[in-house]
Each structure stands twice: as C-alpha cells, then as structure tokens.
Amino acid sequence: MKDSTKSVRETIDPTTGAIVTPIYQTSAFLYPEGERYRYSREVNPTVLELARKIAELEEAEAGLAFSSGMGAISTSLLTLLRPGSKLLIHVDMFGRSVRFARDYLTSWGIKVDVAPADNDVMLEMVKQKYDVVFVESITNPTLRVIDIESIGKVCRDLGSTLIVDSTFATPINQKPTMFGASLVVHSASKFIAGHNDVITGLIAGKEEIVRPIDQMRRTLGTSLDPHPAFLTIRGMKTLKIRMDVINSNAMKVAEFLENHKKVRKVYYPGLKSHETHNVAKRVLKGYGGVVSFEVKGNSESALKVMKSTKVITPAQSLGGVNSLISHPATMSHRTLSPEERKASGISDSLLRLSVGIEDVEDLIEDLDRALSSI
C-alpha cells in the first residue's frame, strides 16, 4: 500500500465494528477479560493503534507512542545507553535534545561527543564507533540535511545504533529505516498530528529495540493519554495530502524569499543555493515545510518582521495546517548560549517559518508586507 492509503486505514474494532478507533478513556480494564491491557499507563487500545500506524508508515517492525517528542527521545536514550556508553549528536539539533545529552546524560557517565554542523566531519566522527548515533534528518532550524544514507552504512558496519529524529521530514518525505536507522523518532505534535492541538511523541524501529524502550516508558511514565492519541490518528489520515501541499507551498515561499531585497539568506534544502541540496535530492522525496531565513538587520529587525505578519501567526511550534513564524534565538533555542547558537548557525536575525496549507499567494503577500516594515 502507498503512504496515503496507510495514513487513512485503521483497525476495525472487533467488538463493535466501529470504523474509527474509539477513545478508550479508562484507567483500567476488567480482569481477566482485560488482561492484555490491565492499566492505561502501560497499554491502551487507542494508543496501541497509533503505535501500529506509525510503524506501518515508517515500514518498521514496531512502534510506540509517548506523551511528547522529548519523552520519546529521553526514554529511548535512557534505555539504550549505560554509564560508559558513547553517544554522538550534532550541534545544530533541537536545543532541548542537546541540553538533555549534555546536561543530563554526561552527568550519568555517558560520553557525549558533539559533531559540528558539517556532514563530512560528522561522517568521519561516526567511524570512531559509538554505541548510539543520534541525528536529525533535517536539522532545526538551519535545515541541514544529514546524509543518513552514508551514516547508516557506517553504523551498520560498526554495529552502532542509529536513531533519526525525522520530525521535519515525516514518513512522506523520508523513511530512515530504508537507510539503516534502527529507530525513528517523531515529535508527532508537528506534521503528523498536523493541527497544532496536541502534544505527542512517536518512535518506530526494530522490535528488539522498541520492546525494552516500551518497558522503560511504563517505568518512567512517559505514556500517552488516549485522547491525544485519537487526535493524532485523525490528523495522520490527511498527512500525505497535507505534505504534498506544504512541500509545494514551502518551495514557492523559499524562492520568493531568496529574491527579496530585505532577506540576507534563505535556508531551504529545495533551493540549489542550500549547502546540502545535493544530499537532499538523494535522501528526500520532498523538501519539507520549514523555511528559515535571515533578514537584513539585527535581532530587533527580525522580531519586527515576525510581529508584523497578519496571516502567519508568531508562535514557537511548527508543522500545522496554519503557518507559524518564530525567532529561534529567543524561542526554540533560547536555552543555548550565544556561543552554542553561533556554532549551530543561528544568528539573531534568523526567523523560522513553518509553512501551512493556506493559499501560497496569501503567504507571500503577508511576508512581503512584513518585510517592508524594516
């Protein structure tokens, strides 16, 4: 089946024949009839259906749902790493991911190395053999496309576990398991749920890896409530058609911004000017819905542009049907030091735009009007 079919299909309820997965809003289940489920923190039928669907979309053996994307990341890393283990991350990834690795995992006795924002250097570092290599397929917010094809081959040869945060790519634009990833992570609050109304994390990967992570999830309590699971399943049904529109809109917006006199630089892997465009053509089916750009000016100029949009909403999240714009230096990456932001390529004049499904001409007119304010 194709992705659009997988996104829509649900398991038919065997008891009632319901064609939509019900919200099993219960903490416990009748024993012994409910022996499979027992307690919703451990297993819930609505949440289990969401886990099944992400595994199917990612063409993986098993899936799991969590209370947030960071819950999925922290639970997975705490399961796979032990004191003395070696972990490789890269500097230009989501700020909280970097913080968790640097601030917590190092204090727990994990050796954490941080690769620079350079694909070639990172590939050489991977060859030193790590227990876990954790990357974002498209980095946040400068949209460097990681060469997971090359990294995946090295990890397979050396026996390293490759984890790919594929939030920006989605299963529509890339399936990391096809490139050797053992585990795929999503902040499903973003493109997968798609409506900026839910907080959810998902993983999909090899059964032998997912199973112990599931046990850690039950212990840590990073479990998902059935209601957001239901909303995520509902949002997932339109994932393919949303991403088709979003990919198209983002490309047109990026091309417009690249030619705007008030814009210094545009970051979008679909543009030939992007440093990893050639990698993107090889490992992505679509270039995604996030466009980052530097305005000509300073932090105040960028904030003025962000606050001047009318169609596009200033907000920290991304991946919804409605377009959002944010200032990474003071929002998503505010926990990083100025030196860390500089190493990640995040300038004070950088804005991150999450392109939605609005009419693209309305988005372009809104951006043009906002940019004229500086």
Automatic annotation (TrEMBL):
One of its GO terms (cellular component) is cytoplasm. GO terms for molecular function: cysteine-S-conjugate beta-lyase activity; pyridoxal phosphate binding; transaminase activity. Keywords: Aminotransferase, Lyase, Pyridoxal phosphate, Transferase. CDD domains: CGS_like. GO terms for biological process: methionine biosynthetic process; transsulfuration. Pfam families: Cys_Met_Meta_PP. Its cofactor is pyridoxal 5'-phosphate. The keyword Lyase applies. InterPro entries: Cys/Met-Metab_PyrdxlP-dep_enz, PyrdxlP-dep_Trfase, PyrdxlP-dep_Trfase_major, PyrdxlP-dep_Trfase_small. This is Aminotransferase class I/II-fold pyridoxal phosphate-dependent enzyme.
